[in-house]
Structures are given as C-alpha cells and as structure tokens.
C-alpha cells in the first residue's frame, strides 16, 4: 500500500479529535471564559473581535477538513458498494458507476427502479388478498 499523504493523516487526526465530546466541552469552556471576561475588557470591540476572528478561522479551516474526510469516506463506501454489486452475479452491473451519470440518466434509472418496486408491492398485495 502507498504512503498516506501528510494532509490525509492530518485531516483524519483532526476529524477524530474534533469529533470527541472533550473537544466540544473545551470549546464551550473557551466561549464561557471569553464571555465572562467581557466586563473585564469593557465589552470592547477588540474583545468581540477576538472571538469573531477565532471562530471564523476555525470554521473556515474545518470546512476543508470535513470535506476531505467526507470525500474519502464517500469514495471508500462507493468502492465497497461497487464490489458488492460486481460480486453478485444477479446484480445489474450498469449500477457500478452511477455517480458518474448526469441527472437525466440518474432520473431515468430511478424511475425504472420505482416502477419495479411498485410492481413488486402490487404482486405482494395481490398474494395477500388471496391468502
């Protein structure tokens, strides 16, 4: 297996750390501490700027980390699903790369599967009425 890039390792580490309850508690504690220091600094513009700037920077950076993690997880999940479809000989192999199709093609396939589900439900309901 190839060596994982620094950014991938960092994004995985950051997402693991930031998703923990203790990190949330630390963030809440930081905000409470900031709020309690308001009277000490006279609720000045600088006092407000500190929290605004800090939260903006953290949010901006977290968007990229979260997107990177989400992209990796989605791609891994897609590969696993593709393998299941490929391994099942009764599956429709045309489903292997659905994520590559445009919206019109996806809608057409979706309608086909909705029709198949409706047909199956009618078949089941028909058997239930006779039994």
Description:
- The protein is built from 4 helices and no strands.
- By secondary structure, the chain is mainly α.
- It has 2 domains: 6-91; 101-131.
- Helix 1 packs across helix 3.
Distance between the termini: 57 Å
Major sheet size, sense and barrel closure: none
Unreliable residue stretches: none
Percentage of helical residues?
Answer: over 70%
Shape: elongated
Task: Return the domain count.
Answer: 2
Q: How big is the Rg? A: 25 Å
Query: Secondary-structure element order, as H and E?
Result: HHHH
Structural class: mainly alpha
Number of strands: 0
- How many DSSP helices? 4
Mean pLDDT: 90
User: Per DSSP, what share of the residues sits in E-state strands of 2 or more residues?
Assistant: under 5%
Short description:
This protein is mainly alpha-helical and 131 residues long. 76% of the residues lie in helices and 0% in strands. It has helices at 6-18, 21-36, 45-87, 103-130.
